[in-house]
Design a protein that fits this description.
The complex is a heterodimer of chains A (about 450) and B (about 160).
Chain A lengths: L25 H7 L2 H6 L8 H9 L10 E3 L5 H4 L2 H20 L9 H10 L4 H29 L7 H23 L4 H14 L6 H9 L6 H32 L21 E2 L22 H4 L2 E2 L5 E3 H26 L21 H12 L2 H22 L11 H23 L19
Antiparallel strand pairs in A: 1-4, 2-3
Helix pairs in contact in A: 5-7, 5-13, 6-7, 7-8, 7-13, 8-9, 8-11, 8-15, 9-10, 14-15, 14-16
Chain B lengths: L4 H27 L11 E5 L9 E4 L4 E6 L2 E6 L11 E2 L4 E3 L6 E2 L5 E3 L8 E2 L1 E4 L2 E5 L28
Antiparallel strand pairs in B: 1-11, 2-3, 3-4, 4-9, 5-6, 6-7, 7-8, 10-11
Classes of the chains: A mainly alpha (about 450), B alpha+beta (about 160).
The complex binds protoporphyrin IX containing FE (HEM) and FE2/S2 (inorganic) cluster.
Protoporphyrin IX containing FE binds next to helix 5, helix 7, helix 8 and helix 11 of chain A.
Chain lengths: ~450, ~160
């Protein structure tokens, strides 16, 4: 397509690509050119620059992607696809979670039985539960890794400060998901992990008691707590995460991907959406180094004023999409394999009169539990986590250094790495090296890690 | 101050929206308050004091409490650890309360010995009515502060949590 499109054949259905319009041949092709098909899929697949652009922006779901992305975004090194993997896991959790809702009653008398029933009486019930559980664990891990990656890349700096804040909210919601979900099987594991977790809140100065009552709906974990956690888990949090995730991903696009771009050197601000105003009638070029109009179907004269640089960019469809499909399938395959190989735990039914030995919080909170066994709960349970979250949230506004190369941000990287190492060490000690009565044990003698 | 339709609308929607948000907040807060606890709150009869031998702690499920006898002093001790609310069992071999969650240890009178608990185990008042022990479940007495060690004696034997 090197000629301009001044002579549009308006009688043709493929007004957009008159020259490239394939001649219908065979049944499928005829079907695809029929009235009905075209009422659903408005444009034919055309392997031309404009056809590829149309694939993206005539599709409501692909709208979340820009039509073109800087080619470096395709490199695995850019993001390790961690944010994307987290989104895929969230989708898996939604699907498996809806299955589980068909079999689960949020009642202290029924919940535990439902879990057993799922194992023995529902076809593939156990598999669905396993996949849901392992995806949830994996999602926490992947989201944390994503945060770490974004930090080390310096991708939270201007103009992405707010997207980092959104990201921290997403992390908190992810933890909220895990924590509320943990109670639902109503077994000994869930009951005591949540007891320990919710009692923490009562240490909050002044409002503590009220907040903890509000969360657990009474003095003690019971029916009210189960119903509250269930509502949060299946309604409030999914809506919150879904909305924030939309904004988060939208912002990734609007802020321009945090990759180094050739001519700009550092991260180009809003590079994918920067409109370049040219005087008039810019020369149409070829795919390498060409301009593509992305404003939809308008006639030539009206678009000349707004065109976009296409320097180092490639079409999202198919280059980005095919990578996402592969990584997405890989993620699903991984959690399926985990679900087939490992069963989600189910201990005895929750018993308020017997604390199991040891009573551990879920693994991502055992670091906190370890801290709690050493320091005053007000310090270890409230001040330290609150400070950590606040610093994380406001990090882009605290760290005003605009450099993104490691050698120019030694202080930030050092502090972050130390905190990260401390979190990992505490978590490993709490998870593997603690036994009954929180005594120090060695994991090769006995493993008390419970997932 | 000039007062015209534009100003009225401009202020009006903000005030209206603010009121709506406040109302929604208040409603949610109120709606989500816990209902009155259905649990036991009244007085619980525990029978004759002679049932509880010195050096023992007996669990009474109806009140979720331990009745312990420290050298003739009787206590109605809450089973809930003041640290983070795990249930604290009595370890026969050491003669102490040992919390399985983070390892707080209390003597037979509920006083703090070691571990992260901010105080001793909470208690309910015990009275003698017509020769029968009665615990008042409606009243919670905060456990003794660190340092109170009236009933502390050396452990009778090995702790229950050592060595798993
Ligand atoms: C539910 C959890 C989350 C999901 C599903 C998610 C999803 C994504 C996706 C799909 C991207 C595009 C690039 C990539 O794949 O890495 C992204 C980028 C980004 N995320 Fe997240 N994210 C989550 C949590 C977080 C957290 C916890 C943070 C940090 C506090 C964060 C900060 C960012 C930032 C700043 C970017 C832009 C980086 C860039 O443009 O390269 N996100 N996220
Ligand atoms: S709950 Fe008893 S020591 Fe933490």
């Amino acid at each position: 397509m090197s000629k301009s499109t001044t002579t549009v054949d308006h009688s043709s259905q493929d007004v957009l690509e008159p020259e490239a319009r394939p001649v219908p041949e065979g049944r499928v092709a005829r079907l695809q050119h029929g009235e009905t098909w075209r009422s659903i899929f408005r444009h034919p697949h055309l392997d031309t620059p404009r056809g590829r652009a149309l694939q993206s922006f005539s599709n409501v779901f692909l709208h979340i992607y820009p039509v073109k992305v800087p080619s470096r975004v395709l490199k695995l090194r850019y993001s390790w696809r961690l944010g994307y993997i987290a989104s895929v896991l969230f989708a898996v959790l939604l699907v498996t979670g809806i299955y589980l809702m068909f079999f689960y009653t949020p009642s202290v008398t029924a919940a535990y039985g439902d879990m057993q029933q799922l194992r023995t009486g529902v076809g593939f019930g156990q598999l669905i539960r396993n996949v849901h559980r392992w995806s949830a664990h994996l999602m926490v891990l992947v989201v944390v890794l994503h945060l770490v990656r974004v930090f080390y890349a310096g991708a939270y700096k201007r103009p992405r400060q707010f997207n980092w804040v959104l990201g921290v909210s997403l992390l908190l919601i992810t933890l909220g998901f895990s924590f509320t979900g943990y109670l639902l099987p109503w077994d000994q594991l869930s009951y005591w992990a949540v007891t320990v977790g919710t009692n923490l809140i009562s240490y909050v100065p002044v409002l503590g008691k009220q907040l903890s009552d509000l969360l657990i709906g009474g003095e003690q974990i019971g029916q009210a707590t189960l119903l509250r956690f269930y509502s949060l888990h299946v309604a409030v949090l999914p809506v919150a995460l879904g909305l924030l995730l939309m904004v988060h991903i939208w912002r990734v696009r609007k802020d321009g991907f945090a990759v180094k771009r050739g001519e700009v050197g550092s991260f180009a601000e809003g590079s994918t959406d920067r409109l370049v105003v040219t005087s008039s009638g810019a020369e149409p070029a070829t795919e390498d180094g060409q301009r593509v109009r992305l404003l939809g179907v308008v006639d030539r004269e009206s678009v000349t004023a707004e065109e976009r640089l296409t320097d180092d960019t490639v079409f999202t469809w198919p280059h980005m999409l095919v990578r996402h499909v592969v990584v997405g399938l890989g993620t699903v395959a991984t959690v399926l394999a985990l679900g087939v190989l490992f069963a989600a735990p189910l201990r005895g039914i929750a018993n308020p009169n017997e604390t199991p030995e040891p009573a551990k919080a879920p693994w991502y909170f055992v670091g906190l539990q370890e801290l709690l066994s050493r320091f005053d709960p007000l310090v270890a349970g409230i001040f330290v986590p609150t400070a950590l979250v606040l610093v994380l949230v406001f990090l882009p506004y605290i760290d005003r250094n605009s450099a993104t190369e490691a050698r120019n941000r030694k202080v930030a990287i050092t502090i972050f790495s130390i905190v990260l190492a401390a979190v990992i060490v505490l978590t490993v000690i709490g998870a593997l090296f603690r036994g009954p009565g929180w005594q120090f044990i060695t994991p090769w003698d006995h493993n008390y890690l419970e997932l | 101050m000039k007062f015209d339709r534009r100003r009225l609308l401009e202020k009006g929607w903000k005030i209206g929206g603010g009121l709506l948000a406040a109302a929604a907040g208040w409603t949610s807060w109120d709606l989500l308050q816990p209902l009155k606890p259905a649990g036991a709150t009244g007085k619980l009869k525990l029978g004759s004091p002679s049932k509880f031998e010195p050096g023992t702690a007996t669990f009474v499920n109806a009140g979720r409490l331990w009745v312990s006898n420290a050298d003739g002093h009787l206590f109605a001790i809450s089973q809930k650890c003041p640290h983070l609310g795990c249930r604290v069992p009595f370890c026969e071999s050491s003669g102490r309360f040992e919390c399985p969650c983070h390892g707080s240890v209390f003597d037979i009178g509920g006083e703090w010995i070691s571990g992260p608990s901010p105080r001793g185990l909470d208690q309910h008042p015990l009275t003698l009515e017509d020769g029968e022990l009665v615990a008042d479940l409606g009243v919670h007495i905060k456990g003794p502060d660190h340092g109170a060690a009236e009933y502390l004696s050396p452990p009778l034997g090995p702790s229950c949590s050592e060595g798993g």
